[in-house]
Write a structure and sequence with these properties.
- It is built from 19 helices and 33 strands.
- The chain starts with a strand and ends with a strand.
- The strands form 8 sheets. Strands 7, 8, 9, 11, 12, 13, 15 and 16 form an 8-stranded antiparallel sheet that branches. Strands 2-3-1-4-5-6 form a 6-stranded mixed sheet, sandwiched between helices.
- It has 5 domains: 167 residues, P-loop containing nucleotide triphosphate hydrolases (Rossmann fold); 81 residues, Elongation Factor Tu (Ef-tu), domain 3, CATH 2.40.30.10; 107 residues, Elongation Factor Tu (Ef-tu), domain 3; 125 residues, Winged helix-like DNA-binding domain superfamily/Winged helix DNA-binding domain (Arc Repressor Mutant, subunit A, Orthogonal Bundle); 118 residues, Arc Repressor Mutant, subunit A (Orthogonal Bundle).
- The radius of gyration is 39 Å and the shape is elongated.
- Translation factor necessary for the incorporation of selenocysteine into proteins. It probably replaces EF-Tu for the insertion of selenocysteine directed by the UGA codon. SelB binds GTP and GDP.
Amino acid sequence: MRKRYYTIGMAGHIDHGKTALTKALTNIDTDRLKEEKERNISIELGFAPLHQEEDMQISIVDVPGHERFVRKMIAGTGGIDLVVLVVAADEGIMPQTREHLDILSLLGITEGIVVLTKMSKVDVELRELAKEEVKAELEGSPFENATLMLVDSISGEGIQELKDLILKSIEDIPVRSSEGYFRLPIDQIFSLKGQGTIVRGTIYEGEIETGAEVTILPQGIQAKARQIQVHGQKSSKGCAGQRAAINLAGVNYQQIERGDAVVSSSLFTVTDIIDVSLKTLGGIKHGLKQRMEIKFHTGTSEVMGKLVFFDRNKTEPAEDSILCQIRLNNKIVVKRGDRFIIRRPTPAETLGGGWIINPSGGKYRFGSETILKLRAIMEGSAEERMMKLLQQKKSIPSQTLIREASLGQDELEEVLQKTGWILLRSSFVTHISIVESCEKKIVEVLSSYHERHPLEKGINKGELQSLLESFTDIVIQFSIGRLIRQKEVSLENGVLHMHDFTPSLPSQWEKRCLQLLHSLREDKLKVKTMEEYFKGAGIPETVRQEFHYFFIGQNWIVPLDEKHAYAWETYNKAVNELKEKTDRRFTITEAKEILDLSRKYMIPFLERLDKDGYTVRINDERKWIS
């Protein structure tokens, strides 16, 4: 059985006992900083192992509760699977409790346990009042049906029961996928003497092994995982859902910062324009306005940006699924489906959040057309998103498709198993409908070409590709191959034509062309220029060149030079006669006497023999090759 990894988040108002509860559950004090000890508040994220068995590992992240550290709270909750919402029984629901609840809801975290702490400070009556207050506050939230427990971290009352409940609740939560590519959003960076740069974070997806080559995005810095630790213990690998520290070789800790991501692939999108589905909170003081400045949080990233609406200029509180865009001041690493939070920079306030429908947003026009486009992106399945891209690009490298359609490797492979999907040259993806459309266009182009140029065998393959600009070369080549196998199209010496097409003289010119050829045969080896024959046959200058090439292609004439040609029968008869009446080698003089030709015809004739491979020139003689 594959080992399962989970992360539990402690959330709640400052001084409501999150750190004490974490210590009671794990026997580890997550307030490690001197300032945290002195001020008795959590400033940085704290982590501790809760449960370690052969088949499962559970970690706890203790997030700061103070309003000034909300950004760190968001960074800590991004990778959690279950939340423990902590409320002090002697104080009840407080402002930061509500904000944490909002953030958890916007991040899509729905699995939770509510814990009333500091039970020794209140009597039984106040305990019941606290419980009622919490239940009332949770109505309408994802946690309204969450189990509510009473504990005291100092005396240990209810601690074991809480631990048991966490273990039971975890059983029904799906594990994060270790398939696909590795991604760890960084939330802590530091350097140790003799070891170098170390980063920490929760592994969102995939897995990493010691020695693996990784990339730090968005900078694109190449590094190597020299060592991996999980809760202070060396490990040969880290898996999705685990809290891990990675010792990176080849990078200075000052080159990276919280919010960067350690990944195993270049397929992750680095972007600063993101299409999103946004939900605004009901308790905000003012609605959101077009192009207002916001703080954008996703994973461990915190970036300034602007909101861009396409169907409105402002919003009201508690609006759901607003399709819009966020344009960021700096590039970040995200995938389709990642959750985000937006906050007002000043005065600080959580405004809303949602999920990323397209990490590679573009510049769109204001209006309903853009909203329809964004809705199609949001609601589209993996297959539909792939088709949308293919309609524009016709064929796409699979790795590019993963990035631009926001797919997982497993999603892509699943789609490629379905009827109609085609993998070209092992890496380019297209669809049979694209191929069939290309085939139809090829047939149309060839048929039209034959109609306009009945004398020509067909069209050069390169020229055909230039006439099919809307299709990629790889799709064109694949389509041509299919048409050839289906015997609809033929390819001869780089020239494509319809399989059943044979070049022929247009009926209106047939008689004149046959007259020309008759005249050429009658003149035997002492021919006039082809221009004279065309003129004598009454064939206009505009079509002479085309007919000339046709005669050559059909083996009706053999060109001597730019102006003269022999009838094919005349030329072959002369070759045979000369071969019969000469030795292995012969001179120009001998050839002139045999064929009774002047130098005007003899030199071009002999050069034609050389070109056709009958003879080879050796000084002043010709030698028969065969």
